[in-house]
């Protein structure tokens, strides 16, 4: 294990109860103890560290699919990423049988991550719930899809049935300790862009906020799902806190604030300064509102820059006084020779990634002992 983390004490010594709080606490007052502890420990770890994450890391990688206990990151470093990204994309727009198969596949992945002591975050490339097709906006979608699925909309019941799948899945994540695995749920990401049907050009601010609040309330209050943390993550289209919060649903509806940022993380030598400034806005708001903060998606496709990990990504995260729970890079496609965002054995950025891995600022799965059961101080 490469890092010596902060001292930990058993819960019984600290006297933390299921109704205890950290910072202002999770927005779910009935959140499970494991979920509350994850919130607290991410908060404390972010004072000195950031967890490294990779989307679909243990589902597939560069040139492989479905191997047990494998990830490209582990093949390079010996440890899985600390945060494993999954996606609810196939929880809708498929046959009932296919949806159930996907729920079981992702359940197995999430439970295995939890049992190893890793952290799970779920994105949602949400297929158009009206016709079950693409998550991208299409010109033929002349009517706002968001307006059609919020309460009072023509397709609201259809949306509720899709949320029922997410709810039943979340309540099925029983680990070997008998507890439900917590999940950081990140719905409607990159909403400030126009590429998704829930994006800013395609729905009003008011309808977007209504959709967010209904989604949280239905899962938490109607379906009694108490092992989710909710993350708000626009893309990089902001320069001020006011712009960052333009579609913010309110502090009582969000556990984590973040941003997705690829465009400021490329080959431009000024990119780290721009990205770091935006991360400071995110982190400063999280401190003020007593939320978690994260760089929820980033990366450089094909990683041709042999020093990108330390001279762009790590430099960006360390440039200002920011507290980030995690940074997550995008997936490694199993077939494409160029679509990958984490190194694999022999990839040109491996030596620099090893420097990134060894830096005490970054945490990988091997560093997370007790993240659900012990309180870091």
Automatic annotation (TrEMBL):
Keywords: Carbohydrate metabolism, Glycosidase, Hydrolase, Secreted. GO terms for cellular component: extracellular region. Belongs to the glycosyl hydrolase 26 family. Pfam families: Glyco_hydro_26 (PF02156). PROSITE patterns: GH26, PROKAR_LIPOPROTEIN. The lineage of its organism: Bacteria, Pseudomonadati, Bacteroidota, Saprospiria, Saprospirales. It catalyses: Random hydrolysis of (1->4)-beta-D-mannosidic linkages in mannans, galactomannans and glucomannans. It is found in: Secreted. The record marks 189 as: Plays an important role in maintaining the position of the catalytic nucleophile. Substrate binds at residues 125, 195, 262. This is Mannan endo-1,4-beta-mannosidase. GO terms for biological process: substituted mannan metabolic process.
